[in-house]
Write a structure and sequence with these properties.
This protein is α/β, with parallel strands linked by helices and 359 residues long. It folds into two domains: 189 residues, no CATH class; 109 residues, Transcription Regulator spoIIAA (2-Layer Sandwich). It is built from twelve helices and five strands. The longest helix has 100 residues.
Length: 359
């Protein structure tokens, strides 16, 4: 696994530009292939006694390593141009050093393939132009060998056709790769912008949620405070109601076994029920024997009020207490008579003083 990682690092180039990284990695592969080819041919040229070629191979090794390092540092275009030019020069010099033109000429299209993988469309076209110029110079220099002239011309035509065809393929490939990388960049930029917009929306949404939560928390706190205030007000109101009730229906102990209940105002169903409840409870708790209803402050008695007084008198009689009614005004007496209320269970007096004296 470790060896595979080290081997992988030999052919990898890291760069932020995808196109430059792609071409740089292709160029590194081409350079390593050239170094490997040089090492493989080194024994052969040594055995054949071509010491000049041996010297060239030994120079190519450190040059290739240097170009690989330059490529990894981002000098992809420069290294690719140097590589293509070196290959073209080597192929152009070969017919005059160690090979025939027929052998080396058919290797010229390889330069367009190398340019197609390592350069852009313009670099490929420049490679074609340099190849054509180099082939022209080589053919012109080889023009002094008449037996090979027809073969050289034919080879020149075939190689030119291969160069043009290879250049077209390489240019189309380069344009396709460039267009694809451009689309990938645009898609990546769109994705980045969408991600940034989504992140901003999420952050803004979180901020809105936080603000809304804070507002709701404040509103809830205000509602709780208002509810507590209402509870306090209701408790106070209840206390006031009880106080008012006690003041509206006072039970006044005038003697040890005598209670006076002064009645004031108008009695509705609620006050009548409260009157009956308080009177009966007070008589039971105090052991009262005489209960005096003072109706001096009552200007009008209706049927319900009269019947309530009579119910109290009947209940008190059952409890062993006597009911006395004092302070009856003439109009109230007429009302009681007209309503047909039976006052047989009641003892009546003119006022409270006479009731207490004659008790």
């Amino acid at each position: 696994m470790v060896n595979q990682q080290h081997l992988h690092k030999l052919f990898v180039m890291q760069h932020s530009d995808e196109d430059l990284q792609r071409r740089g990695q292709n160029l590194i592969v081409v350079l390593w292939a050239g170094i490997a080819l040089s090492l493989l041919t080194l024994p052969l040229v040594w055995l054949e006694g071509r010491y000049v070629s041996v010297f060239n191979v030994l120079i190519a090794l450190p040059l290739g390593l240097l170009l690989i390092q330059l490529t990894r540092r981002g000098w992809v275009d420069l290294v690719a141009i140097i590589t293509v030019i070196v290959i073209i020069i080597s192929l152009g010099v070969a017919p005059f050093v160690s090979a025939t033109f027929l052998t080396s000429a058919y290797f010229f299209p390889l330069t367009t393939l190398v340019a197609g993988y390592t350069l852009g469309p313009r670099g490929i076209l420049w490679t074609l132009l340099i190849n054509m110029v180099t082939l022209g110079i080589v053919v012109w220099l080889l023009d002094n060998t008449p037996p090979e002239v027809p073969t050289v011309v034919a080879t020149m035509i075939y190689v030119t056709a291969l160069l043009i065809f290879g250049t077209i393929i390489a240019v189309l490939s380069a344009f396709t790769a460039t267009r694809t990388i451009t689309k990938i960049r645009a898609a990546r930029e769109d994705a980045r912008q969408a991600s940034a917009a989504l992140a901003y929306a999420n952050a803004h949404l979180e901020e809105q949620v936080a603000l809304r939560t804070a507002d709701l928390s404040q509103a809830l706190t205000a509602i709780e405070r208002h509810a507590e205030e209402l509870e306090r007000q209701m408790a106070t109101q209840q206390q006031l109601n009880e106080l008012i009730t006690q003041m509206a229906l006072p039970l006044l102990p005038v003697q040890r076994d005598t209670l006076v209940v002064p009645l004031v105002g108008i009695f509705d169903h609620e006050r009548i029920g409260l009157l009956e409840e308080r009177v009966l409870q007070a008589v039971e708790q105090r052991g009262t024997r005489t209960l005096i209803f003072d109706i001096t402050g009552v200007s009008c008695i209706d049927t319900h009020t009269g019947q309530a007084i009579m119910r109290c008198a009947t209940a008190l009689k059952l409890m062993g207490a006597r009911t006395v009614l004092v302070g009856i005004r003439p109009e109230v007496a007429q009302t009681l008579v007209s309503l047909g209320i039976d006052l047989a269970d009641l003892t009546t007096h003119v006022d409270l003083e006479s009731a207490l004296v004659l008790r």
